[in-house]
Specification:
The structure holds 2 protein chains of 2 kinds.
Chain A: H1 4-15, H2 20-41, H3 49-62, H4 64-96, H5 98-111, H6 120-127, H7 131-155, H8 159-168, H9 172-207, H10 215-224, H11 228-256
Helix pairs in contact in A: 1-9, 3-11, 4-5, 4-7, 4-9, 4-10, 6-7, 7-9, 9-11, 10-11
Chain B: E1 25-36, E2 39-51, E3 56-60, H1 67-75, E4 82-87, E5 90-91, E6 99-102, H2 114-124, H3 129-142, H4 158-170, E7 176-180, H5 188-205, E8 208-213, H6 216-222, E9 225-230, E10 235-241, H7 250-254, H8 256-273, H9 275-281
Parallel strand pairs in B: 3-8, 3-9, 6-7, 7-8
Antiparallel strand pairs in B: 1-2, 1-4, 4-5, 9-10
Helix pairs in contact in B: 2-3, 2-4, 3-4, 6-8
Classes of the chains: A mainly alpha, B alpha/beta.
The complex binds adenosine-5'-triphosphate (ATP) and magnesium ion.
Amino acid sequence: MANPTATATAAIRNASPGPSLRRLLGIALLLAVWELVANTSGTRLTPTLREIGTRIAFDLETGMLWFHGRLTLMLAFSGLLIAVVIGCATGLLMARSRWAEAMMQPLLGATYPIPRLALYPILILLFGLGAAPKVTLVVLECLYPMALGTYVGARSVTKDQLWLARNVGAGWLRTLRDVTLPAALPAMLTGLRAAAPIMLIVIVVTEMIGENRGLGYMLMLARANFEPDGVLAVVAVLGVLGFLFDRLIALLSKLLVFWERGVRM
Amino acid sequence: MSGNIHAPLTSGTATMDPPADQPQLRVASLGKTFSRNRKTVHALQDVSFDVPRGQFLSILGPSGCGKSTLLHIIGGFEQASSGSLLLDGRPVAGPGRDRGMMFQQATLFPWKTIESNVAWPFIVDGHKRGEARERAHELLATVGLSGFERSYPAELSGGMRQRAALARTLGLSPDILLMDEPFGALDAQTRELMQEELTRIWEHSGLTVIFITHDIDEAVFLGDRVLVMGARPGRIIADVDVELGRPRGTTTKKDPQMAEYHSHFWELIRQEAGPQADRNGGSDRS
Ligand SMILES: Nc1ncnc2c1ncn2[C@@H]1O[C@H](COP(=O)(O)OP(=O)(O)OP(=O)(O)O)[C@@H](O)[C@H]1O
Ligand SMILES: [Mg+2]
């Protein structure tokens, strides 16, 4: 049986547990190569790990990182939250209504390859500078993985399960809560896992364009002052954040989708 | 129920009760055609039979003859294309708890424990959580699954899953049990045990059962009566009462009468698969 949900969660499963040392090996290798390049080139363009670390500590101490990081994360999560709500609703609607499915599928397919970042200037014209165009762009980008994940997940509910619910006399709300959503959960979490890094990328990129706050701005400021260590400090922080979010969602999947492993909690 | 208030004014409530001779289920010239990509499949044609209350009816037929379709229509999940279906004299409008459906694959929710799966209909019905759990425990004891309440479906064998599904279906307090090859996916030994278990539960319950299978011995061992269906179009080719004594058990399986029934039904099915099947095969593409 080709179950898209099963394969999707299998992907999560393969990445989440396992020997943690081996998973850190790749990162260690990257850092080692960087350190080697930094030490041999000796230019300011390639600061050493110690220099980047010192800069992060400095930015933490001055409160810059906290101030800008908080703003970035607030916008990022607002966008993600809206995308999750709209995406889940769209995905569920598509899975349950032939009409919605027929309408939405070509629409999503046609708009997916469009670089939505190109819409940013228009969004600025529409909403002005500030939070609104950034959040909107995050929503637009994160909508796709959420809607598709929910759609695939909700489609994985079998006819037998729905008929069973009808036999029992469960209403549509009860069926949604007790049957459709649990069945869709694994694929929804896969969608969320795809959306999280997109959220960070989009928000930082928009902050790099004509903004005076946020991690993207901090990065551009360091660039303007010709401080490569400042740029890389922000990049490193973004990397850590992205990694943490990914681990968090993986852990969430492990806890929520326990039945796919056949192990009781 | 509100009619009771006026009961003294009317000559009696007896008119509300179904006449004793009325069958619980009446299937009359039922037909079902599926249309897909301009191709029509006559899944059922002119299927008629009555089921009296409390009968164990086996329906036997080759794969694709419309057995599931028939059961789905009785369950109210699908609509007949023609004919009528009367339950205690009333037409069937949709699914209901009066007809408990058991699917070929045990349709348990993998995210719920066995206990929660069996308790779910009670929760849907508005029972309190503790009460629903208590009822679930009783039902699980009936099907011999005590001690597995907290297990998840993935941790159980196929036979145990079907037992749990049976417990959940019994929890609907149905008048009719609709079973679609529930033991089809089980190994031979588990299957025999489940047949004996079902016989035991049914003999104590007074339920009407419509049991679909393509296993001749299973149909005979379980049934008071066996309907044999033929394919293309799906229709009834034989209606035989099984005259084996009750209660039935391991000894019944060694009864020489079993072998007689077996060869009788086998002959019917063989004939059906012969030239007649070829002749009717052409009408499929009409
Ligand atoms: N939803 C459907 N759309 C189109 N054709 C269908 C549909 N459901 C069933 N059929 C067709 O109707 C016929 C009867 O199907 P059905 O599932 O009732 O057979 P069955 O006797 O239960 O077979 P099996 O023993 O394999 O379960 C088959 O030819 C099948 O292809
Ligand atoms: Mg079938």
